[in-house]
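Sorry to interrupt, but I need a hand with the structure work. I would like you to pick a protein and set down its sequence and fold. Please put the record directly below this note.
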Amino acid sequence: MIQTNQMPLNLSINRILIIFLIIGFLITFSHSGHCSEETIHSPYEVSLIVNAGASFGEVKVTIRATPSKDTPTKILSIDLWLDGKAIKISEAAYSDLEAPLLGSTQIRSEVGYDKNPWLYIYFELAYRMEDGQWRPKRVHIAYQDGKIKYRTIDTPHPDGSYTWKKDDL
């Protein structure tokens, strides 16, 4: 009759599992101190310089907002230059705008619908919709015929539509 001893086999499997668990924990915790975390920093000042063609020449826009660790909370100033000439932008164009996403800033132009061309300063605002989703509001500040004419704000809705609001300046 052959006798087998089941007990040592079970103990050795348990010991092997415990050793693997200990090694797994040691590897996990030893690497956690060496991991890195990447952070995207939101700018609180942005400047763009573009060649907007014959209609406007070299265009420069600088937008300054409140310095912050996270998203800036308010716009402090917007400066516009067309071919080196400063164009005054009233505080009414931006003083009530919150949570600007300055990395979205663009300079746009449009010709063809009116006698004279349009220039737009475009940027977005962080916005949480009624359903809790984050989608940006879109802001255009419009320049034509030597002055800032108006500002529009497109506010998103959960169904994908936008409410368009125009404020003359």
